[in-house]
Amino acid sequence: MEGERRPLLEVRNIVKRFGGLVAVNRVSMEVYPGEVVGLLGDNGAGKSTLIKVISGVYRPDEGQIFFEGREVRITSPMDAIRLGIETIYQDLALAENLNVYSNIFLGREKLKKLFNLIPVLDHEYMMQESRKVLDRLGIEIPSLRNKIKTLSGGQRQSVAISRSIYWNAKLLIMDEPTAALGVTEQRKVLNLVKTLSAQGVAIIIISHQLYDVFQVAHRLVVLRRGEKVGERLTHETNPDEIVSLMVGAELVEGGRRG
Ligand SMILES: Nc1ncnc2c1ncn2[C@@H]1O[C@H](COP(=O)(O)OP(=O)(O)OP(=O)(O)O)[C@@H](O)[C@H]1O
Ligand SMILES: [Mg+2]
């Protein structure tokens, strides 16, 4: 179907400056529904700045953003969330002292009326709905009444992702999702990325762990000093080539069509 090939997100010639420093310099990229795009680059390359422009944390100095084919102005994180763009940062923004389902419904709590009169939290509903989304994503958390602070890093990551998915994220942006995790948990988060992709959610993943990105991404975009220096289908490249792009070594572009 023609419509299926339309990018979910397209950014065109995005520029973001901090004073005299050009953190992102005329970067364009697309993300298709269900596609996993790895955003790569050395420290300071502009990865986080670019995704903060997409998620409404920063306003771009130049450039355009299109979402589902329409030009959009994303002036705050709420604008992004309303469009279906959810971003998971390393700090995750979970409430440590609340349980799992309360975090999934944080700020969007479900109320019910007691005696048709008094609004109270509908714990049953929130718990059942949370269980549904966790099951759908294959996430195992024994009790949804457990406080976030009792969970492991990977479980927290999963709760944060579940929250985005429950609220209908179409594009999930993850900045270094596996950095603080153990090996087993890293694998679980990567599996979750694959599950989401299979369910049609588009994902932009930033990671310094090339191995992780190669496992899950369909396409790789490489930034260096704020500029996009390369874009490859994952199955048409290899870590050596990507590292060369990241650090700027001279590279003979053999085997790639023009
Ligand atoms: N709020 C800010 N104010 C001033 N300069 C900034 C700000 N945020 C980022 N920068 C600068 O912009 C450039 C890009 O930074 P950015 O955080 O986007 O890089 P990154 O690719 O995410 O790096 P890392 O892999 O280390 O997270 C860097 O030179 C950085 O110092
Ligand atoms: Mg960063």
TrEMBL record:
This is Sugar ABC transporter ATP-binding protein. It comes from Candidatus Caldatribacterium saccharofermentans. Keywords: ATP-binding, Nucleotide-binding. The keyword RNA-binding does not apply. Residues 9-250 form the ABC transporter domain. The keyword Signal does not apply. SMART domains: AAA. One of its GO terms (molecular function) is ATP binding.
